[in-house]
């Protein structure tokens, strides 16, 4: 993708899974943030959706997962959204957010502690966890980081890059 431009590849529909029906948005595209060696690109975009229901699940999925992974190369992936409308003290609850680099480089044979930055503007407790295949959250890339441990309370990922 070209930096700063609207990418015209890999457009996905956000499909309702439970609590609603059909497609929530058609052909979601994204703005390109970086292009790594002309092979991998990352990006993002915000969409506004005003649901008529108080809870639902939706997802979009694809198959362009990194091919060079030790486990899960070229696997199917899925990003799932779980929405619940909660109102406290006259305000709508805000979802937790993270803003982490899409790719973290590591050196072979070293141990790393990677802090996943999380925030919740309402002050709610935020925990991190691996996606679960039992909940259909991750397609074919569930828990595919050999040598890793995720501390769910501190949102820290310990990784030993032994090169398996």
Describe this entry's structure for a reader.
The protein has 164 residues and is an all-beta fold. 0% of the residues lie in helices and 38% in strands. The protein is built from no helices and 13 strands. The strands form five sheets. The chain has a four-stranded antiparallel β-sheet, with no helix packed on it. The radius of gyration is 18 Å and the shape is globular.
Q: Mean of residue pLDDT?
A: 78
N-C termini distance: 31 Å
What is the helix content?
Answer: under 10%
Low-confidence parts: none
From the alpha-carbon coordinates, what is the Rg to the nearest angstrom?
18 Å
- Using DSSP, what is the number of strands? 13
Number of helices: 0
Category from helices, strands and their pairing: mainly beta
Order of helices and strands: EEEEEEEEEEEEE
The shape, in one word, is: globular
Strand order within the widest beta sheet = 2-1-5-6
Largest sheet: 4 strands, antiparallel
- Percent of residues in β-strands: 35-45%
Topology, please?
Layout lengths: L11 E7 L4 E6 L2 E6 L3 E5 L10 E8 L14 E8 L2 E2 L2 E2 L4 E2 L12 E5 L2 E2 L28 E4 L4 E5 L4
In summary, what is this structure?
The protein is mainly β and 164 residues long. The chain is 0% helix and 38% strand.
């Amino acid at each position: 993708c070209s930096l700063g431009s609207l990418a015209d590849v890999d457009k996905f529909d956000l499909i309702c899974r439970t609590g609603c029906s059909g497609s929530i948005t058609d052909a979601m595209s994204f703005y390109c943030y970086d292009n790594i060696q002309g092979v991998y690109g990352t990006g993002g975009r915000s969409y506004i959706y005003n649901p008529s229901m108080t809870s639902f699940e939706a997802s979009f999925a694809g198959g362009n997962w990194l091919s060079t992974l030790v486990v899960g190369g070229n696997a199917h992936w899925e990003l799932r959204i779980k929405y619940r409308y909660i109102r406290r003290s006259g305000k709508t609850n805000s979802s937790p957010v993270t803003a982490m680099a899409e790719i973290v480089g590591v050196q072979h044979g070293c141990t790393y502690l990677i802090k996943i930055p999380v925030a919740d503007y309402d002050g709610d407790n935020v925990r991190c966890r691996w996606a679960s295949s039992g909940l259909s959250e991750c397609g074919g890339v569930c828990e595919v980081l050999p040598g890793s441990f995720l501390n769910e309370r501190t949102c820290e990922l310990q990784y030993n890059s032994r090169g398996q």
